[in-house]
Amino acid sequence: MAGLGEIVGVLKAAGESTRLRLLALLADGDHSVKDLTEILDQSQPRVSRHLKLLADAGLVQRYAEGAWAYYRLSPAGQGADLARWLIARVDPAAPERRADRARQAAVRTQQQAEAAAYFAQVAQSWDLLKTLHVPEAAVEAAVLGTLAGRTVDLLIDLGTGTGRMLEVLAPAFRRGIGIDSSREMLAVARARLVEAGLNKAEVRLGDIGALDAGVGPADIVVLHQVLHYFDDPGRMLAQARRLLKPGGEIIIVDFAPHSLEFLRTEHAHRRLGLSREQMSGWAAAAGLHVRSVRDFPSDIEDGGLTVCLWYLGDRETMDAPDA
Ligand SMILES: C[S@@+](CC[C@H](N)C(=O)[O-])C[C@H]1O[C@@H](n2cnc3c(N)ncnc32)[C@H](O)[C@@H]1O
Q1: Are 184 and 305 contained in the same domain?
Q2: Ligand 1 pocket test, candidate residues 224, 226, 264, most atoms within 8 A of CB
């Protein structure tokens, strides 16, 4: 329920053709102001003004990514309800809407091409690493299995990369947020989430080593192949712990200790795997408890890496013994 003035304000914000087009575009996924300017072929100040009016009325939300600003439809509230009601009534075959969608697709294709150029640079190391892992499918199935069919309200994937964990764990959350410091990885993640129709998940640019207190609180935090990029994984774990609701849980996938020094010198790893003892210590220091740990040895005989899956809980609310 809202006062008449408030409802009139929301209706006025939505009641203009460019703003209605913006709402329809954002129903298809988050966009930067730069993208929206290109799609609408209007000046950036003009598009920003329209977006500000929509945001002030609660129809959309703005979030900053460094020097860029992104917009998305508000996930809940009166503005969100009205936006979704309106968008559902826009004929997708209307010429203006078709043209907008065509330009939106072109902008996304361009972004994927840019991200592909980045991946072309790292493809060699990524492929090599994949051959050193156990089959990804086994680890992914085990990660999903950890949640044992539960569905939680909020899952946060730290160092989300291309958003793979958000896709894998989609059955287990009502809302998912992925955070990563690489624009290129996030461009791929955004495209993949749209392709998978996963509008309950979003990704944001951010440094997970300096997390914004405004993110969360989450039921589950995921750190999948991320901690070995940090000199001090314990500090990172303590930061992750601060994002949790009381009783929340953390899922970590990372390498067991190894001696492949080239991963450090050539592939930006800081730590050569993480041991069970280290993890127990970091967990305890962060007020967490290792509920279970499972190894996935490499199926390669020489030089393979073992992947570990740790499942951590809030120490206050856990009763299982250390693994
Ligand atoms: C090996 S990838 C793993 C991606 C994803 N979790 C997965 O398993 O597919 C590591 C990711 O961590 C991200 N990353 C590294 N340091 C970060 C930081 N300080 N803040 C945010 N993301 C970071 C990288 O950009 C990269 O996408």
Answers
A1: yes
A2: 226
- My answer on whether 53 and 194 are in the same domain is no
Q: Is 21 in the pocket of ligand 1 (CB under 6 A)?
A: no
Instruction: Tell me if 133 CB under 6 Å of ligand 1.
Output: no
Crossing angle, helix 4-14 and helix 17-26, to 10 degrees? 90
What are the backbone angles phi and psi of residue 294, rounded to the nearest 5°?
A: -135, 135
- The boundaries of the domain holding residue 66 are 4-104
Say how far apart CA 44 and CA 32 lie, in whole Å.
11
- Within a domain: residue 60? yes
| C-alpha 161 to ligand 1 mean position (Å) | 5
pLDDT in tens, 195-246: 999 999 999 988 888 877 678 899 999 999 999 888 888 888 999 999 999 9
Same-domain check for residues 137 and 65 = no
- Domain assignment of residue 261, yes or no: yes
